[in-house]
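User: Can you model how NAP sits in this protein?
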Amino acid sequence: MISFAPELGFFRESWIPGAPPRSVLTRWRCETALRVIDGGWGAVRWMVTGAGGALGTDLVDRLTASGAPPGDSVVALTRADTDVTDPAAVRDAVHAWAAAPADGADDTAVLLNAAAFTAVDLAETDPAAAADAWAANAEAPGLLAAACAEVGATMVHVSTDYVLGPLPDGARRPLEPDDPTGPDGVYARSKLAGEERVRAALPGAHHIVRTAWVYGATGANFVRTMARLARERDTLDVVDDQHGSPTWSADLADGLLALARSSAPAGTRHAAGGGETTWCGLARAVFAELGADPDRVRPCDTASFPRPAPRPAWSVLSDASWRAAGLTPLPPWRDALHAAVTRHPDLLLG
Ligand SMILES: NC(=O)c1ccc[n+]([C@@H]2O[C@H](COP(=O)([O-])OP(=O)(O)OC[C@H]3O[C@@H](n4cnc5c(N)ncnc54)[C@H](OP(=O)(O)O)[C@@H]3O)[C@@H](O)[C@H]2O)c1
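Assistant: Here's the modeled complex, given as structure tokens:
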């Protein structure tokens, strides 16, 4: 159910992908209960930045679905609405959001930051892109966090396995939030700097969530690419010496909302699809979902596919920090892939 609040001029400029035209979209009210851990709060006013991206689209979908809690409201900002690297635009957007009339005395404000520069290889090869990556991934989270501090909002900020370094002595076990950082490359360094700025600006009111290998229904991703290549090629060589946890963005969106509604203290946590595989393993799973022979995907090593930005060889994220916060870990990656392509069959069209 959507309700229009014409008095809120600011919200007129917000846009929710797939929703009514921006000229009529303002504020959404949702009627039934979202499956979340309830921190005992009243209505929540949410802001989603990066609302046009893979994760942002799912966050907005969840927050505007029929199962969202009554009284909650959402402002969804794409880059066209607010450039998160523009200090004045960020401050104006956050203050307008926070100043809008509340539904109740205990109205709580949570900003979900899904905006990021994610063209990892381009950031490595193009100085202008590197500057954009730094602005969006390092500086913008600091601007958003500072604005949240001014208005008393909590911020959920999404980060990446790329900020972590190899474990000592080449050990391989699921990575914890307090494992050593060691970002390699422009994107990785910019994301780590973003984490640091969020912690500094909002010491008691941030949730930093590192995730990995995200694919969603929106935009280009590895799953779509493998589905396309399954049609175009007889065989395919895919890297089999990088390990990680594929993450369906809709599952991540559910997890972030559960975290935001929980009573978990501020901190840094990991959330990714359960279990682990390699890119080759994920490609084979996509072939299997297509009904194609997974053995058409042949394993190769990273050296066979040099890329401008270095990739971690071991990106498997532990769910211990998630469980310790009382949260349900994201579903196993293989189940999630099946659920994703069942719900979004177009993912398999490439
Ligand atoms: N994808 C992965 O595998 C992965 C893995 C680990 C962590 N993450 C993290 O997960 C989060 C969500 O990623 P995603 O996969 O959803 O990425 P995505 O699909 O690329 O979405 C990012 C969104 O941010 C927007 N954006 C970029 N610069 C902006 C700016 N200056 N102002 C406003 N909006 C801006 C982009 O808009 P444009 O489209 O106009 O550029 C895009 O809509 C990010 O923090 C990312 O670092 C992703």
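A couple of observations from the model: The radius of gyration is 20 Å. Residues 50, 52-56, 79, 83-85, 114-118, 136, 158, 160, 191, 211-214, 219 surround NAP (CB under 6 Å).
User: Helpful, thanks.
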